[in-house]
């Protein structure tokens, strides 16, 4: 199985002709385990990296006495002393090598002692190779930055002219204020950032540039008594633009992060004589934060309200209708034959169709109505303040009419139709859940009756319920007859050029319908109480298969297993999972359980405690479809998960622009919390390249392989990684 986007590494490669040679990096390995020294040299090998290795403190000092190194990988316990001895020697000699301590020590004092003596990082054994590689890359990067900073300081000291050049060409707004808060210096960046000339601002108050709503806040920081030198401060505020100057940016203000440092008199009594300020434009970061906030309540594809926001608005509308004794309607809209477009032309065409339909639906609504996308090809509509059922009927007819003209897709025209179910308040229900569910039932009546129409909910019609009962009966028989199957999809590490894990995917081999995806029957299983039996079957089957793979020699492969939120309602879920792994003789670290973001938001069953117990048992826990609208940093702190999976909706957007602030934010979050990150739904090489540039290494999707049987999965595990030259 080919792994795209990867080149073979060669520690002695000189690069392609015409490429600039990278500076040589020298690394010293001090570890008394010869096999580990050899392993480090192999896994850390890169062009222009040179390695020396030894096994004692004395030998390490001897090597350091001969030459300088960029990085030292230092074992804590050595035959002739601890690594702290070597750290002390480096301090005494004023050496500048970066140091990473590698040790199995669990004593916090050992970690603190190493870090206090100047160690840059502390990697505890056992560790993942990727963890060590990241630590090395980080330490080398940090050392390079520190080296550059030292060179910069020397140049600044040597030349006041260079100092002024750096200040005046800085991308930040740099200024000084006198004791009265007036500009005494400001760099030329103010012209580009705000449209003001420097001369026009000199001797004018700093508040001249501050937006009115932020003036009081900044005045409080600037008004400290001159006889009481204040602390430096950092604050976010908005600076106004010069409206008389043309600018490619239409905003009236720029959001900046301002750092203010009081300037203290060096003669006589210590007092504040001015302020040194640096204002950095953070408008792009603020826009990214606004995007994340928007994504929490809106659908990624159509930018319509999502299920959460629709429910909030519907509940508010119900409360208002109760107070005024009014009425409202809920529509459930499903696109007919949408699967035909997806299966025939692909998901990209399907997404184009959904955006066009969303636009058409919006055009048929009144101001004040809410159109939302629940997911897939399902939309809901809230019609507040209707006087009679005929008002909802009029809007339904208008919606159907808006789809009369064909929709132009890249593969040709497509005539879209929709099936609409309508539920009325208070006739058909008093809660948001009841109204939405009854509108859904009415929509299914339209589906059964030929589609492309609308219908009001009628409780006398029970066709939908009979179908549901039939599905429930079939599902009971599926367990009894062994119709459930597990498929597997590989998870690829581009840096390691191999399959590092597999996700177990449940399928129902229905006698008449063929392979049925879990999205079609898992909700039914959850409602009728079958999900516990199904989850136990999935866990046992997946663990048994992983045990067989391990006996075949695939001892390092990980297996991801999806759990239902209902599984965590059971008090003994952790004990059952740990018992299943023990029964099959599996190391806990080889299994990762996937949970949903919604489980994090609803911790009624003590999910956080159970996740923590799973992690303490050594079992990995991943958040599936991360970033689709529920996640918050506070919940990541509460839930000690091990992995974040980027939702496929963000991956699709990489087809338009090969960058995505949301993915960048998620990778940053993962690094901050020291979490593994996996991108799912990767279908094209361009997506893989963009993801890799954004900091994501592990991926799964159709680009690598579609879900396959256990036999196909074992064939993938046996394949030797290929070396693409892309």
Automatic annotation (TrEMBL):
Positions of the UniProt region annotated as Disordered: 1-20
Positions of post-translational 4-aspartylphosphate modification: 75
Domain (EAL) ranges: 468-721
Polar residues: compositionally biased ranges: 9-20
SUPFAM superfamilies xrefs: CheY-like (SSF52172), EAL domain-like (SSF141868), Nucleotide cyclase (SSF55073), PYP-like sensor domain (PAS domain) (SSF55785)
InterPro entries linked: Biofilm_reg_signaling (IPR052155), CheY-like_superfamily (IPR011006), EAL_dom (IPR001633), EAL_sf (IPR035919), GGDEF_dom (IPR000160), Nucleotide_cyclase (IPR029787), PAS (IPR000014), PAS-assoc_C (IPR000700)
Record keywords: Phosphoprotein
Domain Response regulatory: residue ranges: 26-140
Domain PAC span(s) in chain numbering: 233-294
Domain PAS: start-end pairs: 159-231
Domain GGDEF as annotated: residue spans: 326-459
SMART domains tied to this protein: EAL, GGDEF, PAS, REC
Protein name: Bifunctional diguanylate cyclase/phosphodiesterase
